[in-house]
Write a structure and sequence with these properties.
The complex is a heterotrimer of chains A (329), B (330) and C (316).
Chain A: E1 10-21, E2 24-36, E3 41-45, H1 52-60, E4 68-76, E5 79-80, H2 86-92, E6 97-100, H3 104-107, H4 114-125, H5 130-143, H6 149-152, H7 162-174, E7 180-184, H8 192-208, E8 212-217, H9 220-226, E9 229-234, E10 237-243, H10 244-250, H11 254-261, H12 301-305, E11 311-313, E12 316-318
Parallel strand pairs in A: 3-8, 3-9, 6-7, 7-8
Antiparallel strand pairs in A: 1-2, 1-4, 4-5, 9-10, 10-12, 11-12
Helix pairs in contact in A: 4-5, 5-7, 7-8
Chain B: H1 2-29, H2 33-37, H3 44-53, H4 60-72, H5 86-121, H6 126-140, H7 143-157, E1 170-172, E2 175-177, H8 182-215, H9 218-225, H10 230-268, H11 273-283, H12 286-314, H13 320-324
Antiparallel strand pairs in B: 1-2
Helix pairs in contact in B: 1-4, 1-12, 5-6, 5-8, 5-10, 5-12, 6-8, 7-8, 7-10, 8-10, 10-11, 10-12, 11-12
Chain C: H1 2-30, H2 33-50, H3 52-55, H4 96-132, H5 134-148, H6 152-166, H7 169-187, H8 190-204, H9 207-214, H10 219-230, H11 232-256, H12 267-275, H13 283-311
The chains are: A alpha/beta (329), B mainly alpha (330), C mainly alpha (316).
């Protein structure tokens, strides 16, 4: 729910992603809609398989075939980007939207120096000289916290540690000055001790370069610390979306409540961590009605029959029949 | 780098010694050396004298050492078949084989790499399908069948190209080349295709497989996410990643080519080392067999060493110093 | 108690294998026209080879059944041909079809046996190296490396060549088959060893192996009963591709004159003998054995290709 007068930077409407397989067509993402404003950090959380990464890949146009966008629209600054041809798409990628992948060990080409990869990207989008590109690259490396950037710019990826590499990846995603950065599980493959640092770097750099962030993760703790708004995904749909403070303190959807309850908080009175019974259904086996109803402690009759859509509930939007007008949940 | 180099040289030396041992055994035990040298009528006394003279009664180790000393300077004795010094014989035939191998390699690379890259980028499509079929055919057709078919078509039926021999050769010092005469060039065509076909298909398949593998990596995906164009991705980035394993495999394949030259030379009666070897086997000409063996081994060992060094030079991930500690590149 | 536990672990691996083979593999086979064609071709050639003595029109090696009057006849569809000899006859009056059938037999026997030998050598070497580790591993891998620096065909050629030179002709002809099996077998074992070794090293660190050790099972038992079944998939692919290579190698050696002799010819020998008459116009004597050889190798290669793609988890 945005309350600004400016149009949103990114608008995703009714996105639907299909995946034809040998056993029939799967739909990992069903009717997902949300928007991202300039300068904000939107977190996208959910369990593995909820469809978060697919949504991120779809926005930047990197869905792995045979997956394809089967419906809906994606608009950046009002213009559609989901139906562009390859040439136009490569102009959008990097320049308008940047992406950070999960595994820093495999994200960087082992045969080219860090500097070469940065300069390649800068010069692909900006018409500046080699020397100026190199200068910009050094500044970026400095910005992400790589010590002695003039020296390290000529080193190969294998000469960097995991955390350092991810910083380079962040620098790479920002070097063409995009207005949106999609970070897909950027810290999952890193040591716990470095995760906080990297998230910091990401947030700071994006703010300095004026880029919004879509932060995809399954780690609720990270979201609580970093995001402005959060979208919670389950079985290919958004089940709740709203300001982070609201969701953490007063989540509306039973699933979100479960998720929040599972974050251990230092200092809180010692209670048992909440555990949500069961597991997320397989894509080929999604229950009718609300996909969460088999695991939901508050499920009732309608939940089994009708699929809920996002409706307002307190300060967020929730896809839950408990909040239908007239229902006394 | 030096410890690494020394270690590899040492290994090479061991291999060569083993080969020398095999060659030595050939000389000593395949047939009776004395019988191989003198006729039947010669008396036993003379044989015994000859035995002593040639050191055949000395302890094995002594014999082996003197053998190694001799072959280290290239002295393999005299051919049983035509009494010419073996090393001379082989050196005379070397240019023919090397030229053939060179032409076959160039052919294989010129056709194999571009088609391999193409079929790696365009996973499906008519041309890719054709490439697949051709490459499968190349792998399934024995090279002698290819040679025979080519002869049947281009020599017997059409009469365009010669079916045997090297044509006219020009002597440049010690080297004789067929590249400078028309008949020489014409004679090179069919044998080069025959020898190179297998390699060409191997390269096509290898390059395709590597290309497909590389294009699936995360770093290529990340390059796409950064908006680099397909052209840059395919030809600047992926190609470099693809060619490195290809280069090393090609280096190793040169050894295979030299071996398969035996077949091609037999089919086309090409006067190279391979044909000499086959003739030696059929005749029981041990010195020639032994010399060929040692020479070929030397070539393989040298090629392997160079390829290893090359691998370390090209791939920035590999470090000389850690390599000396043990382990192979791939 | 121990035996029961071992049985359960072992049979679990077996049933796992059965499950894979039953579902994905046969589906993949049924949906790949190329694989079906290749499979049928291979089967067909195999059957011809096995039943050759019963189905061939003539026994080409029974000299009394040959008639020189019938020699050098072109194939049956040629005006000078004879319907009795469908693909013509050679200079000695032997029916080409019959020689091909018998030749096919020998080619296949040598191919299969040498693959078995390579398998036995390679798998044991790989298991030993991967399981024992340490200097045994280093030693075996060193030998493998050295062996790899020489092309298989050269090694096979060398062994055969030396045998040919050493032995009197009749003895060589008698033993040619086994010498070939030996020489090709020892030149192709490295790939199996490498694959099995890396698989073994991966499996060795898994918990069920440690559990087996705790239960007191000996290393040999663990290696063969638990680890070996896991290698069946990749080994089968390798063996199929190697079979094509073995058949090709044998054909090449025979063509060069150091393989099967003309008295018991394989397809390669037939091509060699036929080649001598290529310039005198008897093209059928060399072409038909060549085509048969090519079809055989092609079929096996296609089968191996399909198998490799079907069993590759990354491509599913």
């Amino acid at each position: 729910m945005n309350d600004t007068h400016k149009p949103p930077l990114l608008e995703v409407k009714n996105l639907r992603i299909e995946f034809p397989t040998r056993h029939g067509t799967l739909t990992p993402v069903h009717d997902v809609s949300f928007s991202v404003d300039a300068g904000e950090v939107l977190g996208v959380v959910g369990e593995s398989g909820a469809g978060k990464s697919m949504t991120g890949s779809a926005i930047i146009g990197l869905l792995e075939p045979p997956g394809r966008i089967a419906g809906g629209e994606i608009r950046l600054n009002g213009e559609r980007i989901d139906n562009l041809g390859p040439a136009a798409l490569s102009r959008v990628r990097g320049r308008k939207i940047g992406m950070v992948f999960q595994d820093p060990l495999t994200s960087l080409n082992p045969l080219f120096t860090v500097g070469q990869q940065l300069v390649q990207t800068i010069r692909a989008h900006c018409d500046i000289s080699e020397k100026a590109s190199r200068q910009r690259a050094i500044e970026l490396l400095d910005g992400v916290g790589i010590p002695a950037p003039q020296r390290r710019i000529d080193q190969y990826p294998h000469q960097f540690s995991g955390g350092m590499r991810q910083r380079v990846v962040i620098a790479l995603s920002l070097c063409a000055e995009p207005s949106l950065v999609i970070a897909d599980e950027p810290t999952t493959a890193l040591d716990v001790s470095i995760q906080a640092q990297i998230i910091d770097v990401l947030k700071r750099m994006c703010r300095e370069h004026g880029a919004s962030v879509i932060l995809i993760t399954h780690d609720m703790g990270v979201i609580a610390e970093t995001a402005d708004r959060v979208a919670v995904m389950y079985a290919g749909k958004i089940v709740e979306i709203g300001p982070v403070r609201t969701l953490v303190k007063q989540a509306s959807h039973p699933y979100t409540q479960g998720l929040m309850g599972s974050i251990p908080v230092v200092g809180r009175k010692r209670e048992r961590l909440v555990q949500i019974e069961g597991a997320m259904p397989r894509l080929s086996d999604i229950p009718t009605g609300c996909a969460f109803h088999p695991r939901c402690p508050q499920a009732f009759d309608t939940c089994r029959r009708e699929t809920p859509v996002l409706m307002p509930a307190q300060a967020s939007s929730t896809a839950c029949w408990l909040y239908r007008e007239g229902h006394n949940g | 780098m030096l410890p690494f180099l020394l270690k590899r040289l040492f290994q090479a030396l061991i291999v060569m010694l083993v080969v020398a041992l095999v060659a030595f055994s050939l000389f000593r035990y395949v047939g009776d050396p004395i019988n191989n040298m003198v006729g039947e009528e010669v008396g036993n006394e003379y044989r015994q004298q000859l035995r002593e003279e040639l050191g055949l009664s000395d302890p094995i180790l002594v014999q082996f050492t003197s053998f190694v000393q001799r072959i280290a300077v290239g002295d393999f004795g005299v051919s049983f078949r035509n009494a010419v010094p073996v090393s001379e014989l082989l050196m005379e035939r070397l240019p023919a084989t090397l030229e053939l191998v060179m032409c076959a390699t160039i052919l294989a690379l010129l056709i194999g790499i571009p088609f391999g890259v193409y079929s790696g980028i365009h996973r499906r499509g008519l041309l890719t399908g054709i490439v697949q079929v051709v490459s499968l055919a190349g792998l399934s057709l024995p090279s002698f069948v290819v040679g025979i078919l080519l002869i049947l078509l281009f020599s017997v039926q059409l009469g365009w190209l010669p079916s045997y021999g090297r044509g006219e050769v020009v002597k440049l010092g010690d080297w004789s080349t067929g590249l400078l005469t028309l008949s020489g060039l014409k004679s090179l065509i069919l044998p080069s295709i025959t020898l190179g076909l297998f390699q060409m298909t191997l390269i096509m398949r290898l390059v395709r497989a590597e290309m497909l593998e590389v294009l699936r990596t995360d770093y290529i995906k990340f390059s796409r996410a950064r908006g680099l164009s397909d052209k840059v991705i395919h030809f600047k980035l992926a190609l470099k990643n693809t060619l490195i394993p290809v280069v090393t495999i090609m280096g190793l394949q040169i050894g295979s080519l030299i071996a398969f030259a035996i077949v091609t030379e037999t089919v086309f009666q090409w006067p190279g080392m391979g044909l000499l070897f086959i003739q030696a086997i059929n005749f029981g000409d041990v010195p020639v067999m032994a010399c060929y063996l040692v020479l070929i081994s030397l070539m393989f060992v040298a090629i392997n060493l160079i390829v290893d060094l090359l691998y370390y030079a090209i791939d920035p991930r590999l470090d000389w110093n850690s390599a000396a500690a043990g382990g192979h590149a791939k | 108690m121990r035996r029961l536990a071992a049985l359960r672990v072992g049979s679990r691996t077996w049933s796992r294998i059965h499950r894979i083979y039953d579902s994905d593999l046969s589906w993949s086979f049924r949906h790949s026209p190329l694989a079906i064609v290749a499979g049928l071709m291979t089967l067909g050639l195999l059957l011809i080879a096995v039943f050759a003595p019963w189905i061939s029109p003539q026994n080409p090696f029974d000299v009394s059944s040959l008639s020189l009057l019938d020699s050098e006849l072109p194939p049956a569809w040629d005006p000078e041909g004879d319907a009795r000899y469908l693909l013509g006859t050679d200079v000695q009056g032997r029916d080409v079809i019959s020689t091909i059938m018998y030749g096919l037999r020998i080619s296949l026997v040598v191919g299969f046996c040498s693959v078995m030998l390579s398998l036995a050598l390679g798998v044991s070497a790989g298991l030993a190296a991967g399981y024992a580790g340490g200097w045994i591993d280093a030693f075996i891998m060193r030998i493998a490396d050295i062996k790899l620096s020489f092309p298989a065909i050269l090694i096979a050629l060398l062994v055969n060549g030396i045998a040919r030179t050493l032995l009197p002709r009749e003895v060589f002809n008698e033993l040619a088959l086994w010498i070939l099996v030996f020489s090709i077998g020892i030149s192709n074992w490295v790939q199996y060893a490498r694959t099995v070794r890396s698989l073994t090293m991966v499996e060795k660190s898994k918990e069920y192996v440690q559990a087996a050790h705790i239960l007191g099972q000996s290393s040999l038992f663990v290696a063969t009963r638990h680890i070996l079944p896991n290698t069946v998939g990749p080994i089968t692919v390798l063996a199929t591709i190697n079979l094509a290579l073995a058949i090709l190698t044998e054909a090449t050696l025979s063509f060069l004159g150091v393989g099967m002799p003309p008295t018991t010819p394989s397809l390669g020998t037939l091509v060699r003998v036929g080649n001598e008459y290529i310039l005198s116009g008897l093209w059928w004597v060399v072409i038909f054995p060549s085509i048969t050889l090519v079809l055989l190798v092609l079929a096996v290669n296609l089968l191996g290709d399909w198998l490799r793609d079907a069993l590759n988890p990354k491509l599913r």
